[in-house]
Amino acid sequence: MSIQTPVQSKPTAVAVAQRFLSRHVSWIPVFAAIVILVAMFLGAQAYFGNFLTPRVISSLLLDNAYLLILAVGMTFVILTGGIDLSVGAVMAFTGMLGASLLRDGLPVGIVIPVMLLLGAGMGLAVGILIQYFDVQPFIASLAAMFAARGLAFMVSLSSIRVEEPAILWLQSTRIQAEPGSWFITPTGIIALLVVLVGALLLAYTRFGRTIYAIGGNEQSARLMGLPVVRTKLLAYVISGVCAGLAGVVFTAYTGASYPLNGIGTELDTIAAVVIGGTLLTGGSGYVLGSMIGVLVYGTIKTGISFLGADQSWTRITIGALLLLFVVVQRVIVSRSSRR
Question: pTM for this one?
């Protein structure tokens, strides 16, 4: 008598996906954002007929490079359970100061490091207020936002035009294989490099693991002997450096600096990060998800421009998506708690 062994069927793609998501619950919002982005692409292409073209898709990165840089820094802060409302004002302040220094004849090799250091200093100040003076992140970053905006007005009350070729080159240069094909600018390359560095820091360094541990449970992280204070300070410094770098990129994008630049940008940044799957309570999220969130934001803005509608609809749509993703996050957190 021969004994027949049961034939094991190969798992289907759906079964593999379900198994992956059951083991990696934190990726569910990221995949949800990807699904929404793809649906927007397909819907816009079906409605307009000329949306998925190299020019339009390449412009998504070109137009939102500064926001992508801000989103990377904000991801680090939100993962710790904090918030940084100062990034838009810091971007404006560093842009104003940089444009002023360039107008006065300082070389770009000095101006850009000064902008980055100022951004880092603002981020460090917020971190110190939170860690050593026990100020809530919302209040500390709000104070920094007002301070940075005031400093921007102290530099100049009017717009400062930038004529430095090295700065303008960052946005005006298009790298493409042939005319009419996909293109990228140096500002887009900078934004993608920031995403890459941020993703590697979070995934493969002790600093990144500590960030997640703090956001998951700060008290447990302290009991494990992790450098909580130093890590949270560094998270805000990274956010400040990203704001300073965004000041460089945004100045190149507009060709000028203005004290009112970046008003509301901090809210756009937070919305993009949350839509990308980062929990507002901290401990769960990815830089890649934040990049998807920025692309969703840019696609909504571009689609509304195609329609010729008022840009206030961008805010309405982003608000609706933000509410949806907050609800999704609450469901995920409650299910994880029950498990």
Answer: 0.92
- Whole-angstrom Cα Rg for the chain: 22
- Bridge-partner residues for 175, per DSSP? 184
- State how far the Cα of 175 lies from the Cα of 189, in Å rounded to an integer: 10
φ, ψ (nearest 5 deg) of residue 175:
-100, 115
For residue 271, give the 3-state DSSP assignment: helix
Looking at this protein, which amino acid is placed at residue 175? I
* Phi, psi (rounded to 5 degrees) for 255: 75, 10
What tens digit of pLDDT does each residue of 14-70 get?
666 556 555 667 788 888 889 989 999 999 999 988 898 988 999 999 999 999 999
Please state at what angle helix 228-254 crosses helix 65-79, rounded to 10 degrees.
Answer: 170
d(C-alpha 246, C-alpha 93), whole Å: 11
Work out the number of other CB atoms within 10 angstroms of the CB of residue 67: 25
- How far apart, in Å, do the first and last CA atoms of the chain sit? 46
Distance separating alpha carbons of residues 333 and 339, to the nearest angstrom: 10
- The domains of the chain, with CATH numbers, are 30-333 (1.10.3470)
